[in-house]
Amino acid sequence: MLTRDFSFDLPEHLIAQFPPEHRGESRLLLLDRKTGTSSDHVMAEFPELLPENSLVVFNNTRVRKSRIFGRTENGGSVEFLLLKEREPGLWDAVVQRRKRQKIGRRYSFPEGVEAVLVDKPGDRGILRFDPPLDKAYLERNGAIPLPPYIRRSADESDSERYQTVYSREEGSVAAPTAGLHFTPAILHRIRERAEIRYVTLHVGIGTFAPIRTEHLSDHRMHTEEYEVSVETADAVNRARREKRPVVAVGTTTVRTLESAFSEGKLAAGRNSTDLFISPGYRFKIVDHMFTNFHTPGSSLLVMVSAFAGREVILEAYAEAVRKEYRFFSYGDAMFIQ
């Protein structure tokens, strides 16, 4: 199957640059994957659209303020996106104008912090910070790393709106954006008719990246770390025994649940996954999926196509374009039944 089979035309003005004025006020497209029919709703209606006695699973990762700016010895500004701390003070990072940055170059940061570029493996850089950075430092000096299709700098409101209201475990460089639609009031109404549990998957930079291979079979998925608690594993396995539907909120939750399936059940514990879900994949855990509208040629669009069928998804996307739904991270939502 070819990557170009997962492209579609999207007018620029439908790419949401800001969240809705109030959280929880997005539009919601309900898609029946068996019939291919869809209907228009709003987020306030979502609890009533859930099948009764569902188990609804969310990803509770939290976005780190991982975009920081350093100065070279010549006074130039360089942007860094911190991805993962290998050991105290040693970070993998995306480096602005990476080819121009030489190994051994030093950078100065606010509050007297300095760093040196110690290596440039692959398309990344490795920096050693002195003193090591901590969470408080990044809170004071870092910025939320908005996706590149949001063509503006992050402002103070993004510190709150680009986080889910239930985020707990810090470590992502991108939000699990399907969860941005949920408010405490909507979660309360869900609990009145369904069970709620959480997993953690720390979203990596690969979420932004399009598939660059001509054939899907040649694509290699980025690796992300996840954790499934004993309580969540027990709840999912109990729901499956009782034939109650499992609803995954977001593609990162889908990826976690499907990756942690082992020997006929969901396994608790910490692990990492490079699972690439594409058409032909047989879903083991997830019965329904709540998600955003994804970018053309992305692994996320391929995943929802594997779940609902490529033709069904592309027709639903075409319908969403005709009705001017908002797309991508700050856009509207889709519930696939």
From TrEMBL:
GO BP field: tRNA queuosine(34) biosynthetic process
Gene Ontology CC annotations of this record: cytoplasm
Domain of life: Bacteria
Pathway annotation from the record: tRNA modification; tRNA-queuosine biosynthesis
Catalytically driven reaction(s): 7-aminomethyl-7-carbaguanosine(34) in tRNA + S-adenosyl-L-methionine = epoxyqueuosine(34) in tRNA + adenine + L-methionine + 2 H(+)
Main localization category: cytoplasm
Molecular-function GO term, any one: S-adenosylmethionine:tRNA ribosyltransferase-isomerase activity
EC number: 2.4.99.17
Subcellular location: Cytoplasm
Catalytic class of the enzyme: transferase
UniProt KW keywords: Cytoplasm, Isomerase, Queuosine biosynthesis, S-adenosyl-L-methionine, Transferase
InterPro entries, per the entry: QueA, QueA_dom1, QueA_dom2, QueA_sf
Family of the protein in this entry: Belongs to the QueA family.
NCBIfam families: PRK00147.1, queA
Record function comment: Transfers and isomerizes the ribose moiety from AdoMet to the 7-aminomethyl group of 7-deazaguanine (preQ1-tRNA) to give epoxyqueuosine (oQ-tRNA).
Subunit organization: Monomer.
Protein name: S-adenosylmethionine:tRNA ribosyltransferase-isomerase
Gene transcribed to yield this protein: queA
